[in-house]
Amino acid sequence: MKLKLVIFSILISNSIYSQSAKDSLLQKDINVLVEEMEFMYGYDQTIREYTIYKTFDKSETNRIENLPDSLRNEEMKNRKFESDSIGKLIWKKYINPMDAEHTKRMIEITKKYGFPSVERIKKYYEKEFIDPEFNPLIIFIHSPRKYWVELKELMLKEYQNGIINQCQYGYALWQFTGRKSFQPMLDNGFEMIEENGKTKLKSTCE
């Protein structure tokens, strides 16, 4: 029994030390890292929005998103590509290849610094984000299927080491199992509730 307690204590100590070391690295390199991740996030979102709205103008996409449903649907009819081949070309040449590059880079960052959640970043980053909705997790969410096994293992380690919380792990696991079932989330910090006559998932990790 004593031997088991000693081993457990060593594992806990190593985990705490590892997290502390990664926190120090993150703090040291935070400005450069955020600039890089903001670029990856911006590319990810902007190119995807272009395939929907056929514009790079963020104020224009925001205007359209805020329209009533009927007006938005009418607006979108006028923003379709002349040929479906254009949209397919954008995904093949510009979105899918960069999703892979961004995923590889985010894996490198996570292994070195621990997963850079918005909560961790805000501990050390003193500036405002370029995009208020900036979230590095989105970059992982758009990772190609071939990285899913590695990402599941990586995010499990991040959860076990206390770098991400249970709900963040559950959401990531849901994504990396193909979103086939909400069970990964329900098993990890989420619950199904009724609100205003609708059923929805709610995080319990506030």
**Helical stretch count?**
9
- The class by helix and strand makeup works out as mainly alpha
Describe the sheet with the most strands.
2 strands, antiparallel
Overall geometry: globular
Strand numbers in spatial order across the main sheet? 1-2
Number of domains: 2
Q: Helix coverage percent of residues?
A: 55-70%
Using only C-alpha atoms, the radius of gyration works out to 20 Å
Distance between the termini: 36 Å
Low-confidence stretches: 5-14
Oligomer: single chain
Share in β-strands: 5-15%
From N to C, what is the helix and strand string? HHHHHHHHHEE
* Average pLDDT level: 90
Number of strands: 2
Structural commentary:
The chain is built from nine helices and two strands, in the order H-H-H-H-H-H-H-H-H-E-E. The chain is mostly helical and 206 residues long. The protein folds into two domains: 17-164, no CATH class; 165-206, no CATH class. A two-stranded antiparallel sheet has the order 1-2. Helix 1 packs antiparallel against helix 4 and helix 1 crosses helix 5 (118-124). The radius of gyration is 20 Å and the shape is globular. Residues 5-14 have low confidence and may be disordered.
Throw out a few tags for this protein:
206 residues; mainly alpha; two-stranded antiparallel ribbon; 2 strands
Topology:
Elements: H1 2-53, H2 58-65, H3 69-77, H4 84-113, H5 118-124, H6 136-141, H7 148-160, H8 166-176, H9 183-186, E1 190-195, E2 198-203
Helix pairs in contact: 1-4, 1-5, 7-8
Provide a compact summary of the structure.
With 206 residues, the chain is mainly alpha-helical. The chain has 9 helices and 2 strands; from the N terminus they run H-H-H-H-H-H-H-H-H-E-E. It folds into 2 domains: 17-164, no CATH class; 165-206, no CATH class.
